[in-house]
């Protein structure tokens, strides 16, 4: 059987004449149609749990741009919510949640076999999408990595330096490690259900991996990602996994093997030249145009896009940004990037 989906071919290690392309946060506030559907849903979390509307916003960037992959519309913080923490979004500020920092609070979380009571609408979104996506478009499911999710649970919000999570790790390593282990186990169940519902690829977002120093990076970013990847592949033997330990820097080298992932997603903190020599040698890479080009556009966008494409053209590559597209980005710049990648 030949695979027609370009993303799956790249993930299987094939070097393609034109890299497949999708974009982190491709369904988001830079798109007027997203803002309209979000208003219809009421707020961001209601949108995440409304399967029909979540599927609709997932499809919007596919219709507008013809990306090669669609990423399930949801959020990494739905899993802690399913474990029983209160979650809300402060307008203009970001997520807020009740904290988990003590053994008693950890013990008060719901058992993993109850998370589906909250997460069923997410699996339903996946089912709708696997029916409605064009046949050439790959459906990506995702979750946050345990460390990144834990940084929000421990602080109760986003933090610039993940200080509260580092502090708990020093002060009470047993509780911190137990939280990471619980999130690892819960993430395996959550992602496995997404695959059963129709997700064809899984991506693990470790947005704050870069702040883990020394052995902590291996214990709390690499090891949980390896456990999740191994468990998923045991249950779903041909499932491709993309790992995104953002900010890993030189530690990106060797991660395909250490995690067992089919693809390592790169942020724009590493150059494409360095990534071609040190990371792509281990397998498929995804990335890594700086997302500010979606705001600034012009000749710089064209030049830098070509540089990423050309430099990573000697091996398997999925074109993407180095991080999510921002709300102030221009939809026209996205089209310019796609045209540049596809050589139009
Ligand atoms: O990429 C996609 O389009 C799929 C959907 C997706 C969202 N969040 C939707 C979203 C994915 C994969 C995420 C991942 C996510 N969520 C991460 C990891 C990736 C990263 O960006 O580093 C993190 C850290 C979160 C937690 C989160 N969700 C924060 C900190 C915020 C607020 C910041 C912001 O941009 O406002 C969100 C909200 C969020 N998640 C939005 C979207 C489209 C914006 C919400 C809105 O519509 O108001």
Could you characterize the architecture of this molecule?
This protein has 344 residues and is of the alpha/beta class. The protein has a single domain, classed as TIM Barrel (Alpha-Beta Barrel), CATH 3.20.20.210. The protein contains 16 helices and 9 strands. It has a 7-stranded parallel beta sheet. Strands 2-3 form a two-stranded antiparallel ribbon. A hairpin with a 3-residue loop joins β2 (87-90) and β3 (94-97). α15 runs parallel beside α16. It is globular, with a radius of gyration of 19 Å. It starts with 5 loop residues before the first helix and ends with a helix. 48% of the residues are buried. The mean pLDDT is 97. The structure holds coproporphyrinogen III. Residues 24-29, 38, 44, 71, 73-77, 94-95, 142, 144, 158, 205, 207, 324 line the site of coproporphyrinogen III (CP3).
Strand content: 5-15%
Ligand list: coproporphyrinogen III
Task: Give the helix/strand class.
Answer: alpha/beta
Mean pLDDT figure: 97
Order of helices and strands: HHHHEHEEHHEHHHEHEHEHEHHEH
* CATH fold naming: TIM Barrel
What would you call the shape?
A: globular
Distance between the termini: 30 Å
Across the major sheet, the strand order is 1-4-5-6-7-8-9
Count helical runs.
16
Summarize the biggest pleated sheet: 7 strands, parallel
Sum this structure up briefly.
The chain is α/β, with parallel strands linked by helices and 344 residues long. Helices cover 50% and strands 12% of the residues. A seven-stranded parallel β-sheet has the order 1-4-5-6-7-8-9. The protein has a two-stranded antiparallel sheet with strand order 2-3.
């Amino acid at each position: 059987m030949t695979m027609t989906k370009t993303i799956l071919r790249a993930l299987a290690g094939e070097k393609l004449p034109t890299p497949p392309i999708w974009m982190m946060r491709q369904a988001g506030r830079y798109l007027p149609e997203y803002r309209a559907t979000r208003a219809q849903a009421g707020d961001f979390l209601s949108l995440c749990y409304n399967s029909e509307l979540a599927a609709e916003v997932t499809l919007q960037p596919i219709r507008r741009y013809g990306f090669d992959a669609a990423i399930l519309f949801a959020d990494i913080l739905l899993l802690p919510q399913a474990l029983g923490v209160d979650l809300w979004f402060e307008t203009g500020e970001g997520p807020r949640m009740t904290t988990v920092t003590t053994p008693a609070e950890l013990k008060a979380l719901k058992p993993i076999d109850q998370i589906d009571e909250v997460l069923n609408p997410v699996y339903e979104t996946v089912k709708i999408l696997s029916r409605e996506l064009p046949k050439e478009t790959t459906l990506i499911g995702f979750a946050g990595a345990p460390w990144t999710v834990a940084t929000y649970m421990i602080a109760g919000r986003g933090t610039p330096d993940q200080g509260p999570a580092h502090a708990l790790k020093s002060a009470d390593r047993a509780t911190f490690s137990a939280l990471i282990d619980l999130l690892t186990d819960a993430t395996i169940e959550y992602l496995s259900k997404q695959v059963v519902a129709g997700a064809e690829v899984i991506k693990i977002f470790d947005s704050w991996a870069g702040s883990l120093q020394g052995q902590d990076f291996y214990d709390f970013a690499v090891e949980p990602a390896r456990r999740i990847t191994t468990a998923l592949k045991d249950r779903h033997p041909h499932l491709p996994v993309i790992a995104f330990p953002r900010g890993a820097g030189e530690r990106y080298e060797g991660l395909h093997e250490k995690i067992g992932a089919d693809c390592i997603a790169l942020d724009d903190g590493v150059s494409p030249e360095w990534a071609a020599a040190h990371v792509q040698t281990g397998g498929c890479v995804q990335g890594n145009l700086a997302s500010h080009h979606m705001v600034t556009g012009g000749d710089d966008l064209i030049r830098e896009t070509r540089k990423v494409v050309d430099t990573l053209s000697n091996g398997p590559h999925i074109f993407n940004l180095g991080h999510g597209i921002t709300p102030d980005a221009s939809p026209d710049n996205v089209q310019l990037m796609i045209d540049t990648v596809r050589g139009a």
